[in-house]
Amino acid sequence: MATRAERIESAALEEGFDLASLGPASPPPDGPAFEDWLAKGRDAEGIGYVRRNRERLLDPRRLLEGARSILSLAVNHARAPGGFRGAGQVARYALGRDYHRVLGKMLRRLLSRLRREGLVRRARPVVDAGPVLERSHAARAGIGFPSKSANLLHPRFGPWTFLAELVTDAEPGEAGRRVAGTCGTCTRCIEACPTGAIVEPFVVDANRCLSYHTIENRGPIPEGIRPLLGDWVFGCDVCSEVCPFGWKAPEGGERFGRHPSLDLPLPRILDLDEEAFAETFRGSPMKRPRRAGLLRNAAVVLGNLGDPSARPSLERAAADPDPLVREHASWALGRLGRRGADLPTSPRPTGG
């Protein structure tokens, strides 16, 4: 006869999650490493919510009175690389509908079922933004293992998974199983990182990370970082692209679709006002950096590419009402004559 924990996991798989395991709602194994990361200032100013939620991150029982377990969940999103028409790469996770909405709906449906079947009484759903050290809990529960790029790896899906959690009052039992796996001696991600953000195995300094600067950073991108952006308009997949565990991951992006904003050529983004930006990126993760942030990124990439046909759009952006857009458009105009000769190229898998 199946245990309660096994029934909960089976229900999650039946509701569309690719991986599910119920682990204890105790302090995460990586709590000390997280505190050291904070102490060394590797969290970056733009993600201050991490420090504000430090206590809850270190003890998930603060999220729910009577919490006894965390149901760690994962959904595969592996897909081919993509971006805007002509140029401008976008991290694969953001090529379709906002995963927060997709996974949030799946979590609510799962929670309703678990309550209906009497498997949980109280629970708190979490998708990404919630104060949970999700990769640490997921590794302990057994749905992956840590990578040197601070991702969670799975033998089948590699680094291409979205994570979500249900903090519940259910007994964790013995359902969780640690996934066997290790990066071994591989250092591809460390060597490929455009900015050297992986400062040591398993440790990423957000102050150097392209994903941080193109998504969470609300201010100027440091001038030393701008050329290293290459053609990444939103996010960066370099460390995941070079990871051998992800080379044979099955297609998983179809459930998220392809966002229509990707049909735009990159210079066209610079002409979007606030209203047009909101409409163009409705339902896309690319709304996260807001209009000024995404236009800032687009300007930097156009400057890196050195395409003179982008000059009219950049000149208009250099007179934009937002000073952040003006600054980066002016910087890009200064690079147009260079034709992108020093444009870093993103490593692609060569094996598998």
Describe this structure in words.
The chain is α+β, with helices and mostly antiparallel strands and 352 residues long. It folds into two domains: 165 residues, no CATH class; 127 residues, no CATH class. Helix content is 33%, strand content 12%. It is built from 14 helices and eleven strands. A four-stranded antiparallel β-sheet has the order 1-2-8-5, with helices on both faces. A three-stranded mixed β-sheet has the order 3-4-11. Strand 6 and strand 7 form a beta hairpin. Helix 12 packs parallel to helix 14 and helix 13 packs antiparallel against helix 14. The longest helix has 18 residues. The radius of gyration is 21 Å and the shape is globular. The relative contact order is 0.15. The C terminus is likely disordered.
Describe the strand arrangement of the main beta sheet, using strand numbers: 1-2-8-5
Low-confidence stretches: 339-352
Percent range for β-strand residues: 5-15%
User: Could you tell me the radius of gyration in angstroms?
Assistant: 21 Å
Order of helices and strands: HEHHHEEEHEHEEEHEEHEHHHHHH
Class per helix and strand makeup? alpha+beta
**Distance linking N and C termini:** 40 Å
* Overall number of strands: 11
Shape: globular
Oligomerization category of the chains in this entry: single chain
- The structural domain count equals 2
- As a percent range, the share of helical residues equals 25-40%
Largest sheet: 4 strands, antiparallel
Supply the number of helical segments. Answer: 14
Mean pLDDT: 92
